[in-house]
Amino acid sequence: MSLLPLHCTQVAVSTRGWTTVYQSSKVSPRLFVAISTIAGLQFAFWGYLSYYALTELDHVDKRTTSKKQSIMSSFKLRVVVSLISLGAGAFFAVSAFMYPLRVVRSFSVNSESIRLVTATPLGGCRHVLAPLSHVTCSTSRLTGTKKGLFGVKIQGHLLYYLLDHQVLDTSPHVRLFDRLIATRQTII
Question: What are the structural domain ranges in the chain?
C-alpha cells in the first residue's frame, strides 16, 4: 500500500445522483508533496539566514573592517534583516502550502449542491461540499481567457478554488457547468 495516493477521486460520500463536471488528472498529488517539501526547505533556509543575521553578524573586528561592515554589526539592523528573512521564509511556506488546497481535482454537481475534491500539501484528499446558491464563478468560461486557471468562489471560504480551462473545455458536461455556475458571476 502506497503512502501517496495516485488518484484523489475516491469520495467518502455516496456518488448516487452526482454528475462529475470536471476531473483533472494533469497534476499528481506527488507534485504537491514535492512543492511542500521544497517550501519546507525554503523556510529552513530563510530561518537559518535569519539566525545567522541575528547572531553572527556582530562578530566584526573593528580594526580591519570597513565602515560598511561595521554598519551591519549594529543590533537594530541585524534584527531588521533577521525579521525580513524570517518573513520571506514564512511567505514562501504559506503560499506553497495553500496552493494544493485551492487547485480542484474533481468537481461534481447534484440537484442542490456541489462537491469539490482538492489535494492536501501532504498528498491526501480534501472534500468540500457547498450548496449551489453559495457558489459563483470569477469569469465566464466562454468570455474569459482560454488558457490558465480561473476561480470559483464559495461563500464562507476565504480564497478562490482554481479550475483549469483546458480540462473543463474537454469535459462532456461542460454545458451543465455553464448553466449552473459560470452564469453566476456576482462575487460573494
Answer: 19-24+103-182, 32-99
